[in-house]
Amino acid sequence: MRRRPLYVVLTLKNAVVEERTESLFSSKTQTDLLQLLTTIDAARRSRQVKLLILNIRNLSIGWAQIEEIHAELDKFHEAGKRSIAILQQADNHLYYLACGAQEIYPAPSGGLDLVGLRAEILFFKNALDYLGWSPS
Question: What percentage of the chain carries pLDDT values higher than 90?
Answer without folding.
Answer: 47
